[in-house]
Predict the 3D structure of the following.
Amino acid sequence: MSGKLELVNGGVLSVGSFALPPDGHRLDLSVEGADLLPGAFGSIVTVRSRENPFSFFVRDVSAEYPIVIREYGVAVTEAHDARTYDGIVSEVSARGLLSKREQFEAEPEESFESAAAKSKHMRVPTWLGLSRDVRMFEVAPHSLVSDSQLWDTITPMYHHTRVKYPETGDAPVEFDYFAGRGHGSQYDVTRRLEKGVLPILNVTSLDGDIRYEHTLFVTNEIAPLTDETLRGTNYVVADRYATGATPPTTEQKAQFERLRDGELFRDDETVVYLRVRAVNTSSTPKYCFMRLPQINVHSIPELSRMDAAFEDGICRFNSSGRAFLTATLNGRPFSEVDSSVLLRPGEDAVYICKLPHRPIPLERAKALIGTDFDRKLAECVAFWENKLARIADISLPEKRIEEMMKAGFLHLDLVCFGSEPDGPVAPVVGVYSPIGTESAPIIHYIESLGDVGLAGRAVRYFAEKQRPDGFMQNFSNYPSETGLGLWSIAEHYKYCRDIDWLLTVKDNLIRGCEYLMRRSGENRDEALRGRGYGLIRGKIGDCEKNHFNFMVNCTSYGGLRSCADVLADVDPAQAERIGAFAEEFKQNLLDSLREGFATGPAIPLANGYWVPSIGLCADKDTFGPECLFARGGNAFTHGSMVIEDNRCGGGIYNTMFGVLEPDSIYARFLLDLMADLLATDNVSFSQPYYTPHPFNSLKLGEVGAFLREFYNNMATVADRETYTFWEHVYQVSPHKTHEEAWFLMRCRWMLFMDDHGELSLFDGVPRAWLEDGKVIRCSGMASRFGRLSFEAVSEAASGRITVGLTLEPDGAPAPRRVSVRVPHPLGRKAVEVSGGIYDAGRETVVLPDFSGSARITLKF
């Protein structure tokens, strides 16, 4: 492609450069040989202005829809278009159109009900277990995920790995059962966690006039389930049963072999208790039907026979004599696999089955069949409620969100595997091993709810497994874990403020920073200026793209910066050295971000204006998002054309870790790019929780955008009954705690944010939460500034909302700014405020002299 420049109304033109007058000006460009066809390799023009360079596809230029970048004061149109810049802007604005972000703020706030009405409902299997222990069970009622799922299933697992029994030829084991007459034209199955939050599953299935009530939980076979009897699984052993774990070192292999049998094969198995109560709800006698659990059942009975005996309520293998099931009907041993029972009106039949994780000797099975279901259930309830009693107390007007915050904590706790009472724990991410990037929000949420001890054990995992050269890699061949691994360790200190603990990980922090600094030093070729100079190559996902990925580098900067912050308390010299390097690294990253926006072709917004775009990395061959195919290639992966671009520019990791200021022009471009090109209802595609852009929405006061993503994302990816999350929107990878943790962090951001020296409350709470008579109350939350408690009481009908706030520093530094957002349910502005300075535009009260407690009253 070749071109010719012509100055229309003054200026200076020379070879390779031009200068224009300060007021209105026009530059004409004639282009020959440009590729104007749809598809890949469209010709791009880049305007290298000193302050705001930008690019555009030549084929996108149109007088009808000119490329107007308001932030740069520039418009690109066809040469015959005689309008001035101001004239073009005036005509675009006259259309009265709104960008997606502007629509989010102008339209009514999203709610769960409105989001659920238009979103997928993706049910998720449920994981049940003891906490810390990999001997778990996955439970799924029939047709839960697909219509081809024939049975109600209970699957023993070592974390994600299905258990094998020698008696079945070492085939992976699944217990199949069914309550009712079978698959028919109707499907009426609902599920609910015990008390809405505990990892105890209640399932109700209706079959005509018979109601089947299933209750499932996991406990110890012999010992009572208490904190004292909980043993857990050593994290070295647990690692081997996760998906995608990095191959162990020679030392770790030896340690695994030494520990495995003692950790997995115990004289006290975990056991799943199943009770099915069939109730006749009609006014005449009716039959109920029950298929007791059996192993790996085929749809044809003759193909499902095992070499097993079933007598006196105990089902055992003939080959070994070991038992895998006990069963009773109405309190008596029951030994029929298939059965029907006639029930009078209002009468019930109660089947109780107990399934050990691995088969047990006959004598132990005889003891197991006699244990009391209700006593064991009460014991299990008390065990999980005791965990909740140790964390922050949360009471919210929207009970679904309150329950999800509590259930979410228990979901994370359930799969933090490690030896009790104080060994390192592996904060696994669903079926996968811990990952520095994806475990970070898990640890941060556990920390925020006040279980600082468990969070400390989780970050010890990354310190214990750090390699001698400082590298952290626990999953697959991902090279991106070190930055967020270091960040998680350093940030933990900001919550615990334990100098002695910090000294135990000081060398880990320094060694990790040295590793990142060496990796940065590998790319200091001047030819890389603005295109990865001083940055780190690495991939963040499954695709083998070893680029100067912006997310890798944003999170690496976050790790370096946070390490420098905390090392100042124990090693000022190292802190100064690492801090100086971090700032140099940040500048290199900013240079590459600016170049990325300069060369990424502008994209149109829904309001008629355009913004520059950016790709996911800084490499020389990257020109904007992959989905625009400026350099060809294939973009469709993981069920989406835009999943890689959802992480463009490092996503909102830029602002989260302080690379970009939230109100900077590039941060705003990223939000527009996400909302108008890469998302629906502000929810990105395929793996939507990988883009925490709502963080920046709240920083800008764009609550509408935050809530649009919050509810639509949650209503799609989370099971609406049991609150468990998928990884992807096409039902892949269940119980994905990384996705759940980012949702939980959004809940935490709604209530309070404590980053970059500022404490702010209620930045994202919906107006509906402050309707008359509603109360928001939290006590014992952990923050970087100490233990935090707050309460908001709405008496909106009387024109008053009151907020109370207390902060116990526990040795933490004081926030430099404290603010409280108080949105009136009808959008009214306060006419009188006591306790602070009111900002009507942001509906926020700033507390200029906060000394640890405050009480604010707003009158409307």
